[in-house]
Amino acid sequence: MEIKKRVVSEAKNLPPLPVIALVMPASTYRASTFLQAAKELQVQTLVVSDVDLVPLGDLADKFLKVDFSDSKEATSKLLEKLSRIRDELGITVGVLAVDDRGVEIANNVAMSMGLKFANPSLGIKATRDKALLRELLSKKGCNQPKWSHISASESYLEIIQKDIGYPVVVKPIDMQGSRGVIKAESNEQLIQAVEVIESLICDKTPTFIAESYLDGSEIALEALLINGEVNVVAIFDKPEPLLGPYFEETLYVTPTLLDQDSQAHIVKEVKRAVEALGLKNGAIHVEVRLVGSKDGFTPYVIDLAARTIGGHCSSIVEFDGDLTLEMALISIALGIEVQGMVPSNDPRGVAMLPISKSGVLIGVSGVKNAERIPDITGVTITVSIGEEVKALPYGDKYIGFAFAKAQSQDLVTTALRAAVDTIVFDID
Ligand SMILES: Nc1ncnc2c1ncn2[C@@H]1O[C@H](COP(=O)(O)OP(=O)(O)O)[C@@H](O)[C@H]1O
Ligand SMILES: [Mg+2]
């Protein structure tokens, strides 16, 4: 409560109300939470989107329509608008991408305006380009799988056999949400996997990345960078093993059950990765594989995104008090100090409901029963009846979420597993 008051009062003390530009493609799940957070902070919002009016439009104060496929044009449009607000009206401004698609535009604008929040463009680019990420991490000696950036026109079978071996994970350079990420254990599986990737990237230059498969458990780490300092706000255990051939995310449970030393070991490696990319400010969401036994593991950064956790999962990032992840991030982007970001210790978690097959959603059952499961705090279905859904490796959206809070992490996991089993999607 106190933290919120402080943030609110600091925001209030900046006359007139600051403006945060929120770069949000129409497809985002993150619009309402960010807009709500800005309202809480009494900050004005400039919604930068690829549609005329985003739903929840009444929460936003100003709109700017841009074409995200033309990043140069989008950047200059936003730059002009935001500079005018700052320079002609004397208003404090900030700019944030609410998810992956807007990060480069938001960062380019922040850099051109000389905002403290800006990050080096190469580092930001690396969060959207898996080959560049590996390149920058390798340069700084971070723990890495064997990897190779492959042009599909090359004789990739020989390259992968020689440089990487099986099992191998192949992935498109610039997709998210495990789209096209496939583990192959033989030549035959590899050829099939590359065909899938080619079909996903269709008209673009067919390149992909191949990495040795890292066998181990996986955690996700959520942090807020402030002037280069890594403030960890949550480490999530992923109780369902991700073994491939596809890597569908299901359960996230926090706080992690790993001991303090193990957590410190992970955070150290994440810091090395952040430094390798030169990132200084904003949210990061990092996936780390722990290779070896739980006592003696080596942490490997698999993926590092310059955004908050995706989908509707951010509601399980909690602080003591009323501060939310989005409130903290907006404050950082506006240069308002956020003090006392104390992560909550209450066991909680989310299930990203699995999509068993591709097709048209014709019915959903079991939601009410799932909501009645002890420790389940809510269920959200994010696809409408009649809408098409795709299973991995083609999947590109979430079908729904279940949330839980309990006395222990194990009880959270049990409740979430029961919810996943109870909710049935009828897909034709
Ligand atoms: N080299 C690897 N070894 C083991 N698992 C991997 C490897 N690369 C990716 N994965 C698995 O695939 C998931 C998605 O891969 P990632 O690189 O994070 O792609 P995306 O950007 O689509 O999330 C990871 O969270 C991890 O479970
Ligand atoms: Mg990932």
Number of strands: 19
CATH fold naming of the domain at 2-119: Rossmann fold
Beta-strand proportion: 25-35%
**Rg calculated over all Cα atoms:** 21 Å
Biggest beta sheet attributes? 4 strands, parallel
Helix content: 25-40%
Q: Distance between the terminal alpha carbons, to the nearest Å?
A: 48 Å
Instruction: Spell out which ligands are present.
Output: adenosine-5'-diphosphate, magnesium ion
Overall pLDDT? 92
- The count of helical stretches stands at 12
**Second-tier CATH architecture of the domain at 2-119:** 3-Layer(aba) Sandwich
- Give me the secondary-structure category: alpha+beta
Q: Strand order of the main beta sheet, please?
A: 3-2-1-4
Topology record:
Elements: H1 2-12, E1 19-23, H2 31-41, E2 44-49, E3 62-65, H3 71-89, E4 93-97, H4 103-112, H5 121-126, H6 130-139, E5 147-151, H7 156-163, E6 168-172, E7 182-184, H8 187-201, E8 207-212, E9 216-226, E10 229-237, E11 251-254, H9 260-277, E12 282-292, E13 297-305, H10 325-333, E14 348-352, E15 359-365, H11 367-372, E16 376-381, E17 388-389, E18 400-405, H12 409-422, E19 424-427
Parallel strand pairs: 1-2, 1-4, 2-3
Antiparallel strand pairs: 5-8, 6-7, 6-8, 9-10, 9-12, 11-14, 12-13, 14-18, 15-17, 15-19, 16-18
This protein binds adenosine-5'-diphosphate and magnesium ion.
Magnesium ion (MG) binds near residues 287 and 303.
